[in-house]
User: Fold these one by one.
Assistant:
Number 1:
Amino acid sequence: MAKDMFLFWGSGSPPCWRVMIALEEKNLQGYQHKLLSFEKGEHKSKEVLDINPRGQLPAFRHGPNAINESVAACMYLEDQFKSQGNPLIPSDPAEKALAYQRSIEALTVHQKMVDIVTYNRRVPEAERHEAAVKRDKEGLGSEFGVWEGYLHKTGPYIAGKNFSMADVVFFPTLALAFRIGMKQEKFPKLSSYHNFLKERPSIKSTWPQHWLQNPPTFDPLKDV
């Protein structure tokens, strides 16, 4: 079963981390995998391009089936292994609807964060438009404020009383945001959620090793 799976991944990448959490939640340990370096451009290698023609990670294959979008891969794993491990999509219609909604909605906050990080990495400081940077950071702060509100209403998980696909998709983005400068004290509910979930076995066992070994050296979200 898991031996028929292969995952190319990059450490600290929220999309890769989502798939790894889902695999753990579904008790699919023992899958084949290979850690690649973004810095060395290994994600553009032929072995990745053979699975994902965009040269992006994750690149995931189960037997003959290639699934490269992280949320699609997580949904696939839940669908194929419903009776195994922990259910990630609730059976109750209202809870299911909310889990689906939050899972897809989490891609919005992720993209807003990526836009800021990418701009900081690619544009020299002297060439940056400060008004645009300020606007993007305010937009990301407002977006995380929406998620802070969700936890006030539902909790302790992002889509209600049980861990679900929504947490699989959202948590890695939040963890990276705190890692690269976003202040936990500004978002107390999200901070509590983060500190609670990081002890969950599926998350603890897949936590990026370089985060444990090295302090962050990049803080583009310090003003969010």
Number 2:
Amino acid sequence: MAEDLVLDTAIRDWVLIPLSVVMVLIGVLRYFVSKLMRSSQTPDAKMVKEGQVILRARNLRVGANFVPSKAFRARKIYFCNEENGLLFVPKGQGQNPQAQMLSDPNMAMDMMKKNLSMIIPQTLTFAWVNFFFSGFVAAKIPFPLTQRFRAMLQNGIDLSTVDVSYVSSRSWYFLNLFGLRGLFSLILGEENAVDDTQRMMQMGGFGFDPSKGLSAEKDNLDITQHDWALPNFEQRAEAVLRKVIS
């Protein structure tokens, strides 16, 4: 049976609160360092145009049922025509993101700066937490959890008798690392550079390939079936109102 622990208030004052404050301060510091290291580049007009075309085609696909059939077919031909459609990419004209990165040293340098601004602070912070706060039970979650959460919440504590709702200091570090995105959005704004989850997903990539996005959106728009919803809109609204009144 899991044991209930009484946490000392000194753990709250010298482990939990300092660790949380340091993680927030490091995130804010990384944001300003990333802004200083970020090089100002003029966006590629072709990539911006292709991105806007993908967005327009996606909006057409999502709202297809609210456009008359004739207008939808005209827009579909405008985007998906095999000769001069906006989404049609001839074979051999697609851009290779890896070759584009190798041909543009600024892109590779920016990617390296972003990765370094994420890896170095995380490595130093984890070493600091592991050296000073390893082995502490820092907090307790106020609701019961299953055993599947033990490995996530009790990293560094090898005691199976401790209840799963208790959180170790090392696990508290990881929870702050990936869970402060909402707080950083309030402090720094939505377009902040402290989103570690998104950065980890981008570390293995070499950029966005617009030709693949155009081809994928063209395939999705080709298979979209049109079913105009407006002629039956009044009848459906009347049926919904009758259900609500009754």
Number 3:
Amino acid sequence: MLSQNFMLEKDPLSLERIRQILVRLEDTIIFDLIERAQFAHNPRIYIRGSFQELRDMEFDGSWLEWFLKEIETFHAKARRYTSPDEYPFTSNLPVPVLLPLAFPKILHPNTINANPSILSFYTRSIVPRITRRATLALAAIKRSNGIIGDEEYEDDGNYGSAATIDVEVLQAISKRVHYGKFVSESKFLANPAAFVPHILTPNPAALEALVTKPEVERKLLQRLRKKAATYAQEFSADGDAIANSHSNGSAKIDVDGVVELYESYIIPLTKEVEVDYLLHRLDGLSQEEIDALAA
């Protein structure tokens, strides 16, 4: 997982530095999706209460939620979620075993966490699409073995492997979306007077316009498609890409699905985080401090 060392970074709110991190996260997300696409949908792992083994442990959530809880419990003890760019999917986590690091003040205090929305759109929309090829291949194998009807689709039994990769994808998407706070803080500090009136009003549409650059989004989607198409290719034994292997039915990932993930989910949700962060940017400030920012 991509991490930033806030103890050494001279300017963590540099827009160029943030851009570099977001570009690298694109690679992480694409490669994780390619790994998840190797397994069938396995919808059972997303249904709460579908595993008797978990109910016996008095856990009534889904297999994936249990995975997240167990992993994030350990990570919380190692103080992962004290970092300003890390957000857990699980609530009521234990306190860190280690003393907290003295991170520099980067973001304005806030409680914004978009992970419930990320978990929902990922499991409901993204997983079924990116696993379609593996699911269809599984169905063909089952039919050849005499398994037909509802039993032939979706479930290959790889619950642990699928959930392990799901957690990696979710954590990468979460970091990508919540970096919207860094973008908003950087742009706010560069010109607070432009933001303060729309925060006080409040005017979410005006705030969104201040942080949105359509041309940047267009280039992002263009770059993402090129990356996904490249990484989706098969390679020969000598390391050369097999021409058009991403479009002849043997692609490792649904390239359009990767683009849709960003265009329909990650980008819009990031904007929501950016605007929500700005709407609370003046919380806790005195009138004198607000007036100084507006001047």
Number 4:
Amino acid sequence: MAAAREELQKDLEEVKELLTKATRKRLRDVLMAEKHKLELEIKNQPPPKPKDAAEEEKSSLGGYTVKINNYGWDQSDKFIKIYISLNGVQKLPAENVQVNFTERSFDLLVKNLNGKNYTMTFNNLLKPISVEGSSRKIKTDMVLVMCRKKREEKWECLTQVEKESKEKEKAAYDTSDPSEGLMNLLKKMYAEGDDEMKRTINKAWVESREKQSKGDIPMDI
């Protein structure tokens, strides 16, 4: 949770730095929109659990807690589905399998399964989910977590961190050249943005290319 907030904060600082270098009005508008988006994401991050509350919950569980790392997932038009294998989970009382959802995260807690507790946390989901429309189902030797998508669109991965990791594997960002840094950020914003953001970036791109062809500006935006 803290790591996700830290990554968002780093992104915000980079956008602020690029804002100081951008001179074109339309480009500054796009960067300001991204700045506002990042500030909202940071604001919507779930607050850290107070230490005393966390310790109280831990002590009430008994036994010891195992962090779940293995899972499978797929998706439909409306749902992201996460499959967690746990032998005998169907024998537990329903209240022993708890999932708490926020718009960009969920926490799974399975209590007292064969003398152990199991937890799984996903923070900074790739896209927003509907808290009210999300749920969990208990099946034979399996828990199915169903995250209802707010928009019916395909997810390429589960979290923003996963997406950024994949992007960094393809090509590292080089911001030593300010114009190159702006181009890389615009490409990232276009890939992640909604339809309005993409229209704004396209318009800025076309206008800048037209002015460049007329000799108004020397650099490629």
